[in-house]
Amino acid sequence: MPIGKFVEYGEASDEVRAVYDDIMETRKLRWIADFWKVLAQDPATLKRTWESMKQTMGPGAIDPVAKELIFVAVSVANGCEYCINSHMAGARAKGMTDEMLAELIAVVGMANETNALVTAWQVEVDERLRRAAQGGK
Amino acid sequence: MPIGKFVEYGEASDEVRAVYDDIMETRKLRWIADFWKVLAQDPATLKRTWESMKQTMGPGAIDPVAKELIFVAVSVANGCEYCINSHMAGARAKGMTDEMLAELIAVVGMANETNALVTAWQVEVDERLRRAAQGGK
Amino acid sequence: MPIGKFVEYGEASDEVRAVYDDIMETRKLRWIADFWKVLAQDPATLKRTWESMKQTMGPGAIDPVAKELIFVAVSVANGCEYCINSHMAGARAKGMTDEMLAELIAVVGMANETNALVTAWQVEVDERLRRAAQGGK
Amino acid sequence: MPIGKFVEYGEASDEVRAVYDDIMETRKLRWIADFWKVLAQDPATLKRTWESMKQTMGPGAIDPVAKELIFVAVSVANGCEYCINSHMAGARAKGMTDEMLAELIAVVGMANETNALVTAWQVEVDERLRRAAQGGK
Amino acid sequence: MPIGKFVEYGEASDEVRAVYDDIMETRKLRWIADFWKVLAQDPATLKRTWESMKQTMGPGAIDPVAKELIFVAVSVANGCEYCINSHMAGARAKGMTDEMLAELIAVVGMANETNALVTAWQVEVDERLRRAAQGGK
Amino acid sequence: MPIGKFVEYGEASDEVRAVYDDIMETRKLRWIADFWKVLAQDPATLKRTWESMKQTMGPGAIDPVAKELIFVAVSVANGCEYCINSHMAGARAKGMTDEMLAELIAVVGMANETNALVTAWQVEVDERLRRAAQGGK
User: Fold this and answer.
1) Residue F45: partners with Cβ closer than 8 Å, 6 or more residues away
2) Global ipTM
């Protein structure tokens, strides 16, 4: 049960309603996810979060499906079930197949395993690796 | 400083050397990263980890660059500096640009912020979202 | 469903009952939260945990409401739903308003986002910052 | 070593410089922390992050020092050393004493311990607690 | 609700069935846990994960019960409820008593507390400690 | 660099010195680890933490080496380098071999991987598993 209450469209202030309208138009949806309805109890955070989300998840150098996969990966690492489902749904809407989902989860699993191995063995970043991460610059 | 010692190619057992050879051939590299050299103190884990890595990060339904971006995202969430650099280097080698890196980091940041917002407000997965995450099935 | 069973007041040992009495007296409550009842299966940990909690959350240099907010913030970062609710309740009892709660969550969200940005960009602590963190000493 | 390079004031674009000016004016500082200089490689994220930070950390219902303490608490839970130091410095600037710092750390330690106890014993949120967290509404 | 569907024994491919048979034979069980049934949607990950699990959790230098306790400890730190229960069950099957469980949870609690204290106070690994961790080598 | 300063034995208050003496006697050591010296800036937390540590890590139903391994496992999951080294040293002192260390790390790696797989696939605890975790009670 979320803290507080859902701010439904019909009872929303103009400020909140403008955000809701932009969400539905941008995402080609006719409904507002519960996340936004709960967040709308704090209109400044609603507006700021939506604008940041629109900017970061919108068109750019990374493929939109890949952005959703990255979002799911972080949500798994953080154990946020709502976020996992929300962005799996986003990824599906943008073209993620079952095969891609299975691969995504396998990569996330491996990343968590090798992160732990590196941390436990205390492997340090060496110069060669750091230069490569910098793009050879 | 890592725990134990690096197992260098010249002193490696046949079992370890076979893994090293496969790593270099698969990745078109002439050197072995410290992670593998440290892991080689435990040859069973070296072999198993490399084979899993090769399988999960290899060709499939998800674009290879996207897989590296996902790996970096998880490594950031886990705070594993070596892993971040190692897979940023992997992503660069497969074509990641500076623009893609900046977008990746922005998405990871947003994911961590909204994960926290969801957890704090205790938003629950509703049926509509769950069905969408299942692919409408 | 918790592991094991609840140790109810009526069936508790004298050692456990003494802790329960102290909890109710300190917190001006007439009931014992489930956390303590489950922990009471391990009386040494119950006693130690309660005494530590009483000491750290009691009067001091930091305002009691702020201590509860800090506790909620950590519980969000760790994804512990019971702990979030338990200390939101504590914060409410000590005067937290809805406005404060919304601000708390916004700050926690921002902290998680910028933590990820710092980790991904690998920003290092510089001397000026470290001296400031040390209080200029 | 951070990824990429620091964008110094003298070489910054007008957009970045406007953010830098606002940071220095808002915080009454004559220098820009490395976090912002690194972030400035991605001007959209710099601007968005600063505006969000200004909004969430600015005047409101929660005391400004308490906001910094909350920020430190989350940064400890996430293991972000730069962030810990950065917001300890912020807390010092706003009046945090050594006694407050020691109490903060003690509370964060207790929160992490009891979060783990709750998770391991699998204590569930009961109705009484949930109503109290909702403010009795 | 898990993503996708359970792959039941009767409908499994030969490859999946071979893994199921090996799990039941190795663990002396007549049923397959849901984890494996869900994972079986991705047969390569099922096979790889089971083989890794069998190798790491099998006989070796560390007592099998202790390995399960370690697994539970990590699962608590990661907040994975299924994993906590799954490996508590494994530990019970191998001889874990209620006293051991209570001690395990107490140790995990302390570890999380002192981890946070170390991170917040920013205590660094000194040479004496590092040598001792290396086994005096 | 730790926050604040080390409280050396020679300058410690009687309260702090009593804790230091107990640490050295209990652990059969002639020196005090930096963790305790830094913590001693906050004598109440020093005393409380040491007494909790002595109680939880002391003789009991779980083998002392296994307790140290559990402590290392949690520290890896939390990415606390000092804690990893400190308790690896403790484990060595109590008899951990290189083989045990390698197995520990392999188990911790697997636990992190399967935790992520479970979280991503959203596998739920079923009744059979829950009863087994409860000890069949």
Assistant:
1) C56, D102, D105, D106, D109, E117, F39
2) 0.96
> Could you tell me which chain B residue has the CA closest to the CA of F85?
B3
> Which residues from chain A sit within 8 angstroms of residue D3, using beta carbons?
133-134
pTM (2 d.p.): 0.97
Q: How far is C104 from chain B (nearest CA, A)?
A: 9
Q: Where does chain D show beta strands of DSSP type E?
A: none
Residue by residue, pLDDT tens for chain F (137 residues) are: 899 999 999 999 999 999 999 999 999 989 999 999 999 999 999 999 999 999 999 999 999 999 999 999 999 999 999 999 999 999 999 999 999 999 999 999 999 999 999 999 999 999 999 999 999 85
Which member of A4, A42, A78 has the closest CB to residue C106?
A42
Using DSSP, state whether F6 is helix, strand or coil.
coil
Helices (H), F28-126: 34-39, 43-57, 64-78, 81-93, 98-121
Residues of chain A neighbouring E42 (CB-CB closer than 8 A): 102, 105-106
Residue of chain A with shortest Cα separation from E3: A85
Q: Do B133 and E2 meet the contact criterion of CB atoms below 8 Å apart?
A: no
Q: Please spell the DSSP secondary structure of D113-136, one letter per residue.
A: HHHHHHHHHTPPPPHHHHHHHTT-
The SS3 assignment for E18 reads: helix
Please return the burial class of C34, using the count of CB atoms within 10 Å of its CB with bins 0-12, 13-18 and 19+: buried
Interface of D with E in 44-103 (CB under 8 A): 72, 76-77, 79, 81, 84-85
